[in-house]
């Protein structure tokens, strides 16, 4: 038989349309698990597939099922069970992309989503159901007319997880209502060898394909550890995030509570972190994942809900903040990076309480990890004060937020703004490429598991040098690995060190609990969902935006703000109402705190059309830059637009939320803020309301302005809307007057349809502290927010961050108190 490398999908017996689909997915040759498993599956054998994380197991079971469906199409043909909801979505995407050529229809049946719409989807008899066990069981019991009595294929992805104690009883129930005459596939990177568990799956004369040893990690993964005292854990984490700035990280914690706390802590320290755990609503879980996938957040802090199966190519580093209590979880966690032949790194944080677990993991994976190189411990400890401060803030806010998650999310961006920022100075953490490599051992054997299928069949296989018979006796009598597995089960019940958090029981149960929730009437109500398709779109968009943003690579910062509440007068110090007063106070203190510094804050208020605008220009907000310096600046809003005339239609519907506070985007490590927006009420096409639009200043315009880049927020989609090369002579967009030079967005700039909310303008390459002029002049159908991004000058970054701090506080206070804010939306920040 040919070696896997010589094989093609065609030579495995895959039909032409599916081969084409593989090509479209850029699968040039089958991976080893695909090469080994597909022929058996096509022959109609039950398959147990064991292969390393990221080795293409999903297609290994999807292709044979799609082929069988093509040959004998029917509704409710196959059911794929997955332990987590996110994984179910991902598997469904894979089926859809491979099966689109044959018109496959899939339904995702998972907890946390509306039962009724799922029931409707099931009534349409999709070909493939991808489900989490609890919800599927729920439909089988409660959805009229739905049954799986004609099911032909059952797959358990992450089979060892589905067959263990948590899911076992539900699986038992499910299997009672699924026909025995079916094909069954079990796949995982860490397969159980316990016969009792495998019997649960009711396999018939299965073939076992092992493309790796039981607990192996890929060779392209560099595995490190860091050992330090427990009390410095947060500090080390922050240090690592700082060192690895620019990389995409997943940080695994033990509990939901820790996940939430760390996400808050990191955000308070200025890192774009986002939490993912089972206590979030499903919409938020998907939202978090999508933002991470799209690259708008590059730190995902997660429980083990994200440890299995998720395929996010951009993940560079996995950090085990809490060492996993179960060695299997370690394999799956670190498997979120170094996938599909790519390289990646993992760093496991080890404290005095974790040594035993750490040693066990090393033993299980059969590798010694290297210590992660850090310059000096003193460097880490330098962060202690800042970390302690952030910890205090998190403690203050944390309990409230845990109770009220919506509140948490509404304020997430403020966390960043209110915090002092780190300026990240670090080299790029390069992660080289890789190719599909030879992986471990290949073994095939026929596995007589059930008394009813007692015959054993050894299958010789040229590439199989691990050919062994696995039978009940062997399993009971052996073996270090079996023992390990039993130990794992014990391990998971005993956290290695005491923890103050109460939700330790949530570990690993993010999705298992859905059945209980249902019974208790706690089913999470669905919210507006971002379909995973959106994530792909976002990813593409983010890439595009990132590329374009290279033009302003050395750029940053934000100028000032335009506040006001519609009732104020021109005012440089007195204030208008509470909000205005606090804003002024903040500015005043900001000014005085600057002392003799020659860089000054410029505050200018304008009253235009009854609208009081406040603008601050402050070149202290600039950061020094070089290629090796990465900037995280707070998403301070430069300006907001006020509607100058009421909507024409008196019966205009109420304002509608089109964005959320957590939708800021990260481009080249520059955070672009995206406050909540309120969509304008319905417009009369003939008489649109008028909105003020600020000019973007180009102080000391010297003809060096090159680029104006506009980004559009459309329901969290970010697109490069337009790039303009502005020339001095470009009279359409550049105006000069006594106050300076301005870029303005005249209608003559050919903008794409202004059908959504936020616009960003990346502006000139030079800047001084000339005040910003704001003039309402633009008539537009939609509210527009302009943020100008300026190139840095050589100024002290620490001063600038503290200025931003008080500056943004003031914005928040002002906006919260502003009648405009109450009338329209809590948009600013
Ligand atoms: N033949 C192939 N050639 C190239 N890439 C492939 C091939 N098959 C699958 N892939 C890609 O490899 C990645 C990993 O695949 P998949 O998610 O199925 O891995 P897995 O083995 O199920 O991992 P895990 O154990 O973590 O669930 C995916 O991005 C998938 O599109």
From TrEMBL:
Biased composition (Gly residues): 562-578
Keyword Coiled coil in annotation: no
A single GO molecular function term of this UniProt record: RNA binding
Enzyme class: hydrolase
UniProt EC number: 3.6.4.13
Alphabetical UniProt keywords: ATP-binding, Helicase, Hydrolase, Nucleotide-binding, Nucleus, RNA-binding
GO BP annotations, alphabetical order: ribosome biogenesis
InterPro entries: DDX47/Rrp3_DEADc (IPR044765), DEAD/DEAH_box_helicase_dom (IPR011545), DEAD_box_RNA_helicase (IPR050079), Helicase_ATP-bd (IPR014001), Helicase_C-like (IPR001650), P-loop_NTPase (IPR027417), RNA-helicase_DEAD-box_CS (IPR000629), RNA_helicase_DEAD_Q_motif (IPR014014)
SMART domains on file: DEXDc, HELICc
Residue ranges of domain DEAD-box RNA helicase Q in the record: 7-35
Signal peptide: none
Compartments, as annotated in UniProt: Nucleus
Biased composition (Polar residues): 516-527, 807-820
Family: Belongs to the DEAD box helicase family. DDX47/RRP3 subfamily.
Job description of the protein: ATP-dependent rRNA helicase required for pre-ribosomal RNA processing. Involved in the maturation of the 35S-pre-rRNA and to its cleavage to mature 18S rRNA.
Protein name: ATP-dependent rRNA helicase RRP3
Biological source species: Funneliformis caledonium
Lineage, top ranks: Eukaryota, Fungi, Fungi incertae sedis, Mucoromycota, Glomeromycotina
């Amino acid at each position: 038989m040919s070696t896997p490398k010589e094989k093609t999908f065609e030579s495995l017996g895959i039909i032409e349309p599916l081969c084409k689909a593989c090509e479209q997915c850029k699968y040039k040759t089958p991976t080893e698990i695909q090469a080994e498993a597909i022929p058996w599956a096509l022959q109609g054998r039950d398959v147990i597939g064991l292969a390393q994380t990221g080795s293409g197991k999903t297609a290994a079971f999807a292709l044979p099922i799609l082929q069988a469906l093509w040959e004998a199409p029917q509704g409710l043909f196959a059911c794929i069970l997955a332990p987590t909801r996110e994984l179910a979505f991902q598997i469904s995407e894979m089926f859809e992309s491979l099966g689109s050529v044959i018109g496959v229809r899939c339904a995702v049946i998972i907890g946390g989503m509306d039962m009724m719409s799922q029931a409707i989807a099931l009534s349409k008899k999709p070909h493939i159901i991808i489900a989490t066990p609890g919800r599927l069981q729920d439909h089988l019991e409660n959805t009229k007319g739905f049954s799986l009595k004609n099911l032909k294929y059952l797959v358990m992805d992450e089979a060892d997880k589905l067959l263990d104690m948590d899911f076992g009883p539900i699986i038992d129930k499910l299997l009672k209502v699924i026909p025995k005459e079916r094909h069954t596939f079990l796949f995982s990177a860490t397969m159980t060898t316990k016969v009792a568990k495998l019997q649960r799956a009711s396999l018939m004369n299965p073939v076992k394909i092992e493309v790796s040893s039981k607990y192996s990690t890929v060779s392209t993964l560099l595995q490190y550890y860091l050992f330090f005292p427990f009390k410095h854990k947060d500090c080390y984490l922050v240090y690592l995030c700082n060192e690895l700035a620019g990389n995409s990280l997943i940080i695994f914690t033990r509990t939901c509570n820790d996940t939430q706390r760390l996400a808050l802590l990191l955000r308070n320290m200025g890192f774009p972190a986002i939490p993912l755990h089972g206590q979030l609503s499903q919409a938020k879980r998907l939202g978090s994942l999508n933002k991470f996938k799209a690259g708008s957040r590059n730190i995902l802090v997660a429980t083990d809900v994200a440890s299995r199966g998720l395929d996010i190519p951009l993940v560079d580093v996995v950090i085990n903040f809490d060492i996993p209590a179960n060695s299997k979880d370690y394999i799956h966690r670190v498997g979120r990076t170094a996938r599909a032949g790519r390289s990646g790194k993992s760093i496991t944080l080890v404290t005095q309480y974790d040594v035993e677990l750490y040693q066990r993991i090393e033993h299980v994976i059969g590798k010694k990890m290297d210590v992660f190189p850090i310059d000096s411990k003193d460097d880490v400890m330098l962060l202690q004060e800042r970390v302690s401060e952030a910890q205090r803030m998190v403690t203050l806010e944390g309990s409230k937020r845990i109770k009220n998650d919506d509140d948490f999310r509404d304020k997430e961006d403020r966390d960043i703004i209110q915090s002092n920022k780190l300026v990240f100075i670090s080299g790029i953490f390069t992660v080289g490429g890789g190719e599909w490599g030879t992986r471990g051992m290949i073994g095939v054997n026929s596995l007589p598991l059930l008394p009813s299928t007692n015959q054993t069949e050894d299958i010789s296989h040229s590439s199989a040098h691990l050919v062994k018979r696995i039978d009940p006796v062997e399993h009971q009598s052996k073996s270090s690995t079996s023992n390990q597995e039993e130990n794992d089960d014990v391990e998971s019940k005993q956290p290695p060190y005491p923890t103050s958090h109460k939700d330790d029981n949530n570990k690993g149960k993010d999705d298992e609990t859905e059945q209980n929730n249902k019974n208790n009437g706690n089913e999470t109500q669905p919210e507006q969902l971002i379909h995973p398709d959106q994530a792909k779109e976002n990813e593409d968009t983010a890439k595009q935006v990132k590329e374009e943003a290279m033009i302003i690579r050395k750029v940053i910062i934000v100028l000032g703000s335009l506040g006001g509440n519609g009732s104020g007068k021109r005012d440089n110090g007195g204030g208008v109402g509470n909000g205005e007063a606090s804003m002024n106070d903040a500015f005043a203190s900001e000014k005085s705190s600057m002392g003799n510094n020659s860089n000054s804050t410029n505050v200018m208020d304008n009253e235009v059309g009854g609208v009081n605008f406040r603008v601050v220009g402050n070149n202290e907000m600039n950061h020094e830059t070089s290629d090796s310096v990465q900037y995280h600046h707070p998403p301070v809003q430069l300006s907001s637009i006020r509607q100058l005339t009421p909507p024409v239609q008196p019966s205009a519907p109420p304002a509608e939320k089109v964005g959320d506070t957590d939708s800021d985007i990260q481009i080249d490590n520059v955070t672009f803020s995206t406050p909540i927006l309120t969509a304008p009420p319905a417009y009369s096409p003939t008489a649109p309301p008028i909105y003020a639009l600020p000019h973007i200043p180009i102080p000391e315009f010297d003809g060096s302005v090159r680029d104006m880049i506009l980004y559009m927020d459309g329901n969290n989609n970010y697109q490069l809307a337009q790039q303009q090369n502005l020339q001095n002579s470009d009279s359409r967009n550049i105006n000069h007057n006594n106050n300076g030079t301005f870029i303005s967005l005249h209608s003559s700039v050919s903008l794409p349809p202004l059908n959504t909310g936020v616009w960003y303008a990346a502006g000139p390459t030079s800047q001084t502290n000339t005040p910003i002029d704001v003039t309402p002049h633009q008539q537009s159908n939609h509210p527009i927010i302009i943020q100008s991004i300026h190139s840095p000058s050589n100024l002290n970054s620490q001063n600038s961050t503290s200025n931003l701090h008080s500056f943004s506080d003031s914005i928040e206070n002002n906006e919260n108190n502003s009648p405009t804010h109450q009338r329209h939306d809590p948009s600013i920040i």
